[in-house]
Write a structure and sequence with these properties.
The protein is an alpha/beta fold. The chain is about 35% helix and about 25% strand. It folds into five domains: about 100 residues, 3-Layer(aba) Sandwich (GIY-YIG endonuclease); about 70 residues, Arc Repressor Mutant, subunit A, CATH 1.10.10; about 180 residues, P-loop containing nucleotide triphosphate hydrolases (Rossmann fold, 3-Layer(aba) Sandwich); about 180 residues, Rossmann fold (3-Layer(aba) Sandwich); about 90 residues, 2-Layer Sandwich (Alpha-Beta Plaits). It has 22 helices and 30 strands. Helix 8 crosses helix 9. The protein is globular. The protein starts with a strand and ends in a 6-residue tail after the last strand. The relative contact order is 0.08. The structure holds adenosine-5'-diphosphate (ADP) and zinc ion (2 copies). The site of one zinc ion (ZN) has 7 residues, from loops.
Length: about 725
């Protein structure tokens, strides 16, 4: 028999199938194998098996060995891989990599075992004891310990008593040793809050609607409407039917509560897949799913590739979150993969959000998706009242602090009552750009061509793209002036000013600076959840689905910030952000409040979010995008060219543009826009960046295929070309 093997080397020249003799290796479809390749050995995947090869038998090499006892990939995985390869025009090797934790491929992690000791049952304990020579106290102690406690890890016996005593008893045949697998379990203590509750009427209707529909469902439920409970009960039913489930969350370290609830409800049946785990933890959790020991895979976007068979349900929580779009090759959209996986396995797909993406909601209104709505918070709790603070008016009245009068007053009330508050702002660091007041010089990163940010705690300038650090400026390098201005407001400055206003309040800060290490988010959220602090100040991270019952006030410092991005989705992002942050307030018994600070109180996007009017926002947004041909009423293609050598980048851009122009010629009427240019950020990590931008209203599929082709053909060792479809940010 012949195995069709994809070798694990992701360069496009090798994107083909190689034939190997299976011999006695035992390889089957889906096996990971070690094969000879040129002068070396390499890892590969068996994607199929056949009787004969087109190559002469004697020229074929044989598989050296199979890596895992069970094939790592299922048949369904392979079909999904084929779909991804075709859809995103990537090599099979790079697609198959998505299906395994990266550490597994290098062969560096294995399952961990330990030696356990029990008493032999061929001799009675009393006989053993009486046979010991006088003074063999340690051996006696070991025997007694095992008699009372049963099976024990050898390392523990060695440490507690002595290795010599254990060996001596072994030699006498009194002890039996066995090798057992030990699991490395991530977030061991994370469990709780998953008590089963009686569903509200709306929740029940939602569950029924999802179960009775054969389409994917958009579960649109206001913040605090109890979407998680709906997911839990859906999972419960699927497990009862003997099937398995995947639940995706934007970022597990930001939403520990969700995992905590799942684990307290389903225990060891849940496995967590998450980039922050140690290699060993990832390996063990992955195998628990693959072996069928765990039935529920939970994690960020890559958990869509969880090695589960018999899949009955896929949930994408907070489906509007940007983290569901992959930013490295293959640049997949999680929803597209989930749709295909659900189709292949006959699983149900549920997309949940209080603020669905415009394109998702459009599908729900046209009937492509089933729509299940929950319009009320659990137990009829009211949505928080949103108070607008017009910051232009504040300045006119002489208030130049980052806080409006209303926010200061509400903060005082909240703290007086012993409640908690969350303060949200869009930036991190102490201040924004560093500008020379004399000549307008702006301090920039040498590798990235973006403005540097001043971080007061460390007293350095940082690049937010590559993390390079620079000394603070004492004088302008261009004109020598010492009049350097550190403008803007960042999280750190907000904390400092808050502390001055409320000297006794305990304030926590959460942004990329305070959460560098793996457990950073957890610690801050946990402390805040345990009411060890009064105010949490943070960036986007505080907007995620947290459920803190004591939070009754949310302050949004600069609601306009994201309105002015040049991106066609900036209105949508702003609406989502405001609604999500506001949704953290008043989730328990006491009504919540939100103070929203803005320089443009009449902005229609803000008006819709203040009244929680998604429909109104959606209608307006669709009208605007339809009239100007923006997605979802068109497609945006961005063909990126990146190289460390500027000239190579420019030449490649020229070739790409020539080829793209032919496509443009063939489909002339389909293009709304077509041009080449420098990328907005001209350089990142020393790579020069150029782009071709196109907006297309019809014949999209054919044009996309051609653009993918151009990108793939021009990519080489010196230059990277890739295609982005409807990119969520165009930096
Ligand atoms: P969402 O994800 O929609 O924002 P959550 O799932 O976090 O909302 O639920 C909000 C709160 O309501 C949680 O504290 C949750 O435990 C509680 N809750 C959910 N469903 C019920 C129910 N049926 N009965 C009582 N409390 C519930
Ligand atoms: Zn200057
Ligand atoms: Zn940089």
């Amino acid at each position: 028999m012949i195995a069709k093997v994809i070798v694990d080397i992701a360069t496009s020249e090798l994107d083909r199938i190689f034939d190997y003799k299976i011999g006695y290796s035992g390889a089957v479809q889906g096996s990971r194998v070690i094969v000879p390749f040129g002068k070396f050995k390499t890892e590969g995947f068996v994607i199929g098996v056949k009787e004969t090869s087109d190559y002469p038998e004697e020229k074929l090499k044989s598989i050296i060995r199979v890596v895992d006892e069970v094939p790592a990939l299922t048949k369904e995985n392979l079909r999904l891989a084929e779909f991804i390869k075709n859809k995103y025009h990537s090599s099979m090797a790079s697609v198959l990599r998505l299906f395994l934790p990266s550490e597994m491929r290098t062969g560096k992690v294995r399952s961990k075992t330990a030696t356990y000791i029990t008493l032999s049952d061929t001799v009675s304990v009393s006989e053993m004891i009486s046979s010991l020579r006088k003074g063999a106290d340690k051996q006696l102690a070991v025997l007694e310990f095992l008699r009372d406690n049963g099976k024990t890890k050898q390392s523990i016996l060695n440490e507690t008593f002595s290795a010599g005593a254990v060996t001596a008893l072994k030699n006498k045949g009194f002890l039996v040793a066995s090798e057992e697998k030990i699991l490395r379990t991530p977030y061991k203590d994370l469990s709780g809050g998953g008590e089963r509750v009686k569903l509200t009427k709306e929740q029940e209707l939602a569950v029924n609607s999802i179960e009775n529909s054969d389409k994917p469902t958009l579960l649109k439920g206001v913040t605090g409407s109890g979407k998680t409970e709906v997911y839990l009960q859906l999972i419960e039913r699927v497990i009862k039917d003997g099937k398995t489930a995947i639940m995706l969350v934007p970022e597990i370290s930001l939403t520990p509560q969700t995992f905590s609830r799942l684990r307290s409800r389903f225990g060891d049946k849940c496995a967590i897949l998450h980039s922050g785990l140690s290699a060993g933890e990832k390996f063990d959790e992955w195998w628990r799913l693959r072996s069928g020991e765990a039935l529920i895979g939970v994690g960020a976007r890559s958990a869509i590739f969880a090695p589960l068979e018999n899949l009955g349900l896929i949930i994408i929580d907070e489906e509007h979150d940007q983290s569901y779009e992959s930013e490295s090759n293959p640049r997949y959209v999680t929803e597209e993969i989930a749709l295909e996986r659900a189709k292949l396995s006959g699983a149900k797909l549920v997309l949940g959000s209080a603020t669905p993406n415009v394109h998702t909601y459009l599908k729900a209104t046209t009937g492509e998706y089933n729509l299940a709505e929950m319009k009320e918070r659990v137990n009829g709790r009211p949505m928080p009242e949103i108070i607008i603070a017009d910051m232009k008016e504040e300045i006119r009245r002489g208030n130049i602090s980052p806080f409006s009068v209303a926010l200061k007053q509400e903060l005082k009330n909240t703290l007086d009552k012993g409640n908690q508050a969350i303060i949200f702002l869009n930036r991190r660091g102490y201040s924004q750009k560093v500008i020379c007041r004399e000549c307008g010089y702006v301090a920039k990163c040498l590798n990235c061509d973006v403005a540097l940010h001043y971080h007061r705690a460390e007293s350095v300038l940082k690049c937010h793209f590559c993390n390079s650090q620079y000394h603070m400026l004492t004088a302008c390098p261009d004109c020598g002036s010492v009049s350097i201005n550190y403008t803007g407001t960042g999280t750190q400055k907000v904390v400092d000013e808050l502390q001055q206003l409320f000297p006794t309040a305990k304030i926590l800060r959460m942004d990329n600076d305070t959460t560098q290490n793996k457990e950073g988010h957890f610690k801050i959220l946990k402390e805040f959840g345990e009411k060890k602090a009064d105010i949490l100040v943070g960036t986007q991270m505080v907007a995620k689905g947290h459920d803190f019952p004591s939070v009754t006030l949310v302050g949004i410092l600069d609601a306009d910030m994201s309105l002015y991005f040049s991106d066609y989705r900036s209105g949508e992002r702003t609406f989502q952000l405001v609604t999500q942050v506001a949704g953290r307030s008043g989730r328990a018994d006491e009504k919540g409040k939100v103070v929203l600070q803005t320089y443009s109180p009449k902005n229609p996007v803000l008006s819709s979010s203040i009244s929680y009017d998604y429909e109104n926002f959606f209608k307006r947004e669709c009208m605007v995008r339809k009239a100007s041909y923006f997605p979802p009423f068109s497609h945006i293609l961005r063909l990126m060219v990146e190289s460390e050598d500027e000239e190579t980048a420019i030449n490649t851009l020229k070739s790409a543009f020539e080829k793209a122009r032919e496509v443009y010629g063939n489909y002339h009427g389909s293009f709304i826009y077509f041009d080449k240019m420098k990328s907005p950020v001209k350089k990142i990590k020393n790579k020069y960046r150029f782009q071709i931008l196109a907006r297309i209203k019809d014949n999209y599929q054919a044009i996309e295929d051609e653009f993918y082709d151009i990108a793939n053909r021009l990519t080489s060792k010196k230059v990277l070309c890739y295609l982005e479809v409807n990119p969520s940010s165009v930096s």
